[in-house]
């Protein structure tokens, strides 16, 4: 039967996954309406608060998201932390489907003594949030002036973002949308040497060519050569896939800047596992060095991307250790998603091990312990699903992948929702009136929540651009929620 009411979807999170899914849902069917809920008063998730300020072209996706928000069938509800400010179960009666796209709000830890220190030790997530004006990390005040040596543990692109921001110099950053408080602290930074340290070898690092090249080309910054014996033999390198071969060639070539004349330098240090952090005996709040255990690659399989490492032992049975000077230390070993409070009330059992919402790979949320609607997977196996519940982005597949892969993933989930609607896996006729946000608003307002609309974001956006213009930047973000709300009066 023809249903004459719209199909209402709640999207939790306004990062790339939420927006790309909304774009697909709205464009493929004209009877869909999307309410997008966001914890912060402002949209765009890691496109705004993760992507480095000196990579403005990556933020072009926000133009697309602005277009999506033009739709009269799109509604933004910001400044509402779902699960905390409002129970998730309150959404259920008012939507045909709920799509979780709330990303990864924590970071993975190293599990070494000292990493929870108040000073000198930071997660890359917090540091990135701090320089990008994320309210949660506004007051991080990283110690960049106690000494000259920074150590970053982790060998992925986020580690390279941190290294580049530490080494670039404020002249290269002052016209970007980097937060003013960060620019000011970086102008006083004494950091001269940055080490990007990994557990495994060059073949196992997960950098991309563009990010490595950028660091190698930074003016006045030299690259410490990588010891030759760490590279695979040349005939092996020549047979590698193109991107990997190019990366090995870049590592070997290094930068044109001379170590003796460059005021700053950086290095890639391989085969080291963090062991402990150490502070000055005379200034106990001052970090002096990080201790690492030396590793060796599995001799049976040293060059495979998945090669494992073991600690290296000397002939007398001692584990070989190395100390690296470190006045500031960053861990950059990945982000982590957490369950939202009250998810279990919807029947969701978060997979804490993998840090994802269990799903069928197409975005349908799986039911724990086999209860729920049975569904056949393409391989013929049967799984149980929670009808009307979906996930996309980092909370669906884990915190890896760039915006392009997040887009592809969000499209898959949106197509799944549309398919379920067509095949009546999501049965619109089961509920006669479904009001979406209109049905919940009074409860939220009654609790004193001050939500923000897309119009509100426009006003904040305009005020940020104005502040930026006054400083010769394209934007100066408000880095406190109260400041954002003040703009709205
Ligand atoms: P997110 O972008 O994290 O969005 C999730 C949103 O949900 C956030 O806005 C969050 O506030 C909101 N939220 C969380 N909890 C709640 C709640 N309870 N209620 C309501 N809302 C909630 N990719 C590139 O292509 N190029 C790059 O240069 C690049 N740089 C990166 C740099 C860093 C430091 C990081 C961490 C990632 C980078 N990426 C880059 C990857 C890219 O940012 C991700 O692929 C993408 O943002 C993941 O999208 P998402 O929507 O799943 O999560």
Automatic annotation (TrEMBL):
Cofactors per UniProt?
FAD
InterPro entries per the UniProt record, alphabetical? FAD/NAD-bd_sf (IPR036188), FAD/NAD-binding_dom (IPR023753), Ferredox_Rdtase (IPR055275), Ferredox_Rdtase_adrenod (IPR021163)
Which keywords does UniProt give here? Answer: Electron transport, FAD, Flavoprotein, Mitochondrion, NADP, Oxidoreductase, Transit peptide, Transport
UniProt keyword Iron present: no
- Per UniProt, residues of the FAD/NAD(P)-binding domain are 7-168
Q: Where in the cell is it found?
A: Mitochondrion
Residues reported in the UniProt entry to bind NADP(+): 155-158, 199-200, 211, 401
**What are its GO cellular component terms?**
mitochondrion
Reactions this protein catalyses: 2 reduced [adrenodoxin] + NADP(+) + H(+) = 2 oxidized [adrenodoxin] + NADPH
Which Gene Ontology molecular-function terms are recorded? Answer: oxidoreductase activity
Enzyme class, broadest EC rank: oxidoreductase
Q: Is Mitochondrion included in the keywords of this UniProt record?
A: yes
What is one Pfam family matched by this protein? Pyr_redox_2
Q: Which residues belong to the signal peptide in this entry?
A: none
Q: Which domain of life is it from?
A: Eukaryota
Q: What is its EC number?
A: 1.18.1.6
Q: Which residues does FAD bind?
A: 17, 38, 46, 82, 394, 401-403
Where is it predominantly found?
mitochondrion
Q: Which family is this protein grouped under? A: Belongs to the ferredoxin--NADP reductase type 1 family.
Name the chain's protein.
Answer: NADPH:adrenodoxin oxidoreductase, mitochondrial
């Amino acid at each position: 039967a023809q249903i004459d009411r719209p199909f209402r979807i709640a999207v939790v999170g306004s990062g790339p996954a939420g927006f790309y899914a909304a774009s697909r849902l709205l464009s493929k069917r004209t009877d869909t309406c999307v309410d997008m809920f966001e914890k912060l008063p402002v949209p765009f998730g890691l496109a705004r608060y993760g992507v480095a300020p000196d990579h403005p072209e990556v933020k072009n996706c926000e133009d697309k998201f602005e277009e999506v928000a033009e739709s009269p069938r799109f509604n933004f509800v910001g400044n509402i932390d779902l699960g905390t400010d409002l129970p998730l179960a309150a959404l259920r009666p008012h939507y045909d489907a709920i799509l979780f796209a709330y990303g990864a709000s924590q970071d993975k830890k190293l599990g070494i003594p000292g990493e929870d220190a108040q000073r000198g030790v930071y997660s890359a997530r917090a540091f990135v949030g701090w320089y990008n004006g994320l309210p949660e990390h506004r007051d991080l005040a990283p110690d960049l002036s106690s000494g000259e040596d920074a150590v970053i543990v982790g060998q992925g692109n986020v580690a390279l973002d941190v290294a580049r921001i530490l080494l670039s110099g404020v002249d290269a950053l002052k016209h970007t949308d980097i937060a003013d408080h960060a620019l000011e602290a970086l102008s006083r930074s004494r950091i001269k040497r940055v080490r990007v340290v990994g557990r495994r070898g060059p073949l196992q690092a997960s950098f991309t060519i563009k990010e490595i090249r950028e660091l190698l080309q930074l003016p006045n910054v030299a690259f410490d050569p990588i010891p030759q014996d760490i590279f695979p033999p040349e005939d092996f390198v020549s047979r590698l896939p193109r991107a990997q071969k190019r990366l090995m060639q870049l590592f070997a070539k290094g930068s044109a800047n001379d170590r003796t004349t460059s005021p700053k330098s950086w290095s890639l240090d391989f085969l080291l596992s963090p062991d402990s952090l150490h502070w000055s005996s005379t200034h106990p709040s001052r970090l002096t060095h990080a201790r690492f255990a030396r590793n060796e690659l599995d001799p049976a399989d040293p060059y495979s991307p998945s090669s494992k490492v073991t600690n290296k032992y000397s002939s007398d049975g001692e584990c070989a250790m190395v100390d690296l000077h470190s006045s500031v230390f960053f861990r950059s070993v990945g982000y982590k998603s957490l369950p939202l409070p009250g998810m279990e009330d919807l029947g969701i059992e978060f997979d804490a091990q993998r840090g994802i919402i269990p799903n069928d790979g197409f975005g349908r949320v799986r039911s724990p312990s086999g209860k729920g609607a049975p569904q056949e997977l393409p391989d013929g196996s049967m799984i149980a699903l929670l009808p009307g519940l979906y996930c996309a982005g980092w909370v669906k597949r884990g915190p890896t992948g760039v915006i392009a892969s997040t887009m592809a993933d969000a499209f898959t989930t949106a197509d799944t929702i549309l398919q379920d609607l067509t095949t009546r896996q999501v049965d619109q006729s089961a509920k006669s009136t479904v009001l979406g946000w209109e049905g919940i608003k009074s409860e939220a307002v009654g609790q004193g929540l001050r939500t923000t609309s897309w119009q509100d974001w426009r006003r904040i956006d305009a005020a940020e651009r104005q502040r930026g213009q006054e400083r010769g930047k394209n934007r100066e973000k408000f880095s406190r929620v109260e400041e954002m709300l003040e703009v709205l009066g």
